[in-house]
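Shipment paperwork, digital attachment
Item: protein structure file
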Amino acid sequence: MEKLTPSEVQEKLSSVPDWRLTDEKWIERKFRFRDYLKGIDFVQSVANLSEQANHHPFISIDYKVVTLRISSWNAKGLTALDFELATKYDEVYLKVKS
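Attachment content:
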């Protein structure tokens, strides 16, 4: 996949409003959970999706908060795939947190 231009990144960010751009090459979101194990369930689901896509985020678990950071190493920045996965991770969050 090709690296998105800065204007394409801004356009794609509007489709994932809870994600933020960091260092001009990552998108990041913090997911909050009622309890620790819900966060762990979320991470397992994210890991399964990421493995299927062969595209893996950085994952940080801080008790009830899980932070995901996504970028495309091969493209040296953000691609459409990063935003597709962000949307899927958001969908998983809505299922797991309820």
